[in-house]
């Protein structure tokens, strides 16, 4: 009996050790990217559109899987209406009219796909490219830190229909689960690019998980204020930022992935995480919350084929940027293949108060040309000493991506860290 007990105990210890070894970066007992993601969306064929959406949706409406829809121009869900989208439904954004879907404040989207039948927003062009159409915009009445407590999305849209912000952190804008957004981010003359998914003043009763933004011309995810928890988010080859947080956003992000490539980044600096508290300091109300992001078990990776060459030519930039008056706690995460891993705004004073709100703990910094720097400074010895303190359990390594991750060349890649790679690191 004792022998059986010992064998069982040993098996439990092995399983526990394996789990502990795999705790950094995205995690899961299996590859949770399977079935619902698409890493080569330009090769995916969809049915021709047979239904057109345009103007305003003012009553509760359901989009059916049997149809393929076209967003002709900006389509507004208004009047507190609920737009329900069946699993497996495909919605295409029109290139010529800058198709976009806007869920206005008080309305809801119930886009509750499933793993084997995700909901897809994509381009209507035969040869799909980044920036073909607008994107998906969700507007809520959770707090933002701009003066007056409200603001409006630009993008040459109807300003009366794009107001967001309020006083309700528990606002509910609906459900987005197992959903893909492809080739969004249209450039609007006189404005910046659309984002693939804009979440503005969205409250914490909104469910946002398993959402993938692929090949956007602008940012993949832009979170403007609000209070939310998101998980299993995927950004693939964004020209802009993968995740941008501003206007006092209060966000918890878990088990999420940003996959960059040197040749897909925009001409201006684009980051995996761009954490700021305001666009213009004079517009910020400092009596209200500043941006605070807690990100756990995230993988931020540059998949360029020749990292050394791209580093030497200056094509690779930083992975994370933190602006003055913003907070980030990044824990149990992987940053691989950037130059450097992190840059802090040069307005940030390196004192105890600021170091307490900029946390890097149990990190795996891999293949980065430098780790943590202050902007416009080449001397980071103090930061290296601080974040290299054993109490933070940060690891530093130079391992090729192909050896570090389980399988990044598969049709559906597996970006979980190979068991044993972390424990072998210094």
TrEMBL record:
Stretches assigned to coiled coil: none
Record keywords: Signal
Name recorded for this polypeptide: Right handed beta helix region
Superkingdom per UniProt: Bacteria
SUPFAM superfamilies linked to this entry: Pectin lyase-like
Signal peptide per UniProt: 1-20
InterPro entries: Pectin_lyase_fold/virulence (IPR011050)
């Amino acid at each position: 009996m004792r022998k059986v007990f010992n064998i069982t105990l040993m098996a439990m210890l092995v399983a526990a050790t394996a789990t502990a070894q795999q705790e950094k970066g995205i995690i899961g007992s299996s590859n949770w990217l399977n079935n619902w993601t698409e890493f080569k969306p330009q090769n995916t064929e969809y049915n021709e559109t047979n239904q057109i959406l345009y103007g305003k949706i003012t009553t509760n409406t359901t989009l059916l899987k049997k149809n393929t829809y076209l967003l002709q121009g900006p389509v507004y869900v208004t009047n507190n209406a609920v737009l329900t989208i069946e699993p497996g439904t495909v919605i295409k954004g029109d290139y010529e009219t800058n198709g976009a879907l806007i869920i206005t404040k008080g309305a809801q989207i119930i886009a509750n796909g499933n793993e084997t039948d995700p909901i897809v927003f994509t381009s209507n062009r035969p040869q799909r490219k980044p920036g073909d159409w607008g994107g998906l915009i969700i507007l809520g009445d959770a707090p933002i830190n701009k003066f007056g407590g409200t603001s409006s999305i630009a993008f040459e849209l109807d300003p009366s229909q794009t107001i967001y912000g309020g006083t309700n952190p528990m606002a509910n804008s609906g459900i987005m689960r197992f959903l893909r957004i492809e080739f969004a981010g249209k450039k609007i003359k006189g404005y910046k690019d659309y984002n693939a998914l804009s979440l503005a003043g969205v409250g914490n009763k909104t469910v946002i998980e398993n959402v993938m933004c692929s090949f956007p011309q602008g940012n993949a995810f832009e979170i403007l204020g609000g209070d939310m928890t998101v998980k299993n988010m995927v950004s693939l080859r964004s020209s802009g930022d993968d995740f941008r947080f501003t206007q006092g956003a209060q966000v918890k992000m878990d088990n999420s992935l940003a996959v960059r490539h040197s040749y897909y980044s925009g001409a201006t600096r684009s980051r995996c995480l761009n954490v700021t508290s305001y666009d213009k300091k004079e517009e910020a109300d400092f009596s209200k919350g500043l941006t605070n992001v807690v990100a756990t078990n995230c993988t931020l990776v540059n998949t360029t084929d020749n990292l050394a060459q791209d580093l030497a030519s200056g094509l690779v930039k930083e992975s994370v940027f933190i602006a003055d008056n913003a907070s980030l706690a990044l824990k149990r995460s992987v940053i691989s293949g950037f130059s450097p891993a992190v840059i802090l705004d040069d307005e940030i004073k390196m004192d105890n108060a600021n170091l307490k709100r900029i946390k890097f703990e149990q990190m795996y910094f891999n293949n980065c040309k430098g780790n943590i720097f202050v902007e416009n400074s080449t001397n980071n010895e103090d930061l290296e000493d601080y974040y290299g303190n054993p109490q933070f359990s940060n690891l530093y390594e130079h391992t090729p991506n192909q050896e570090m991750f389980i399988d990044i060349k598969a049709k559906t890649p597996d970006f979980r860290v190979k068991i044993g790679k972390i424990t072998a690191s210094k």
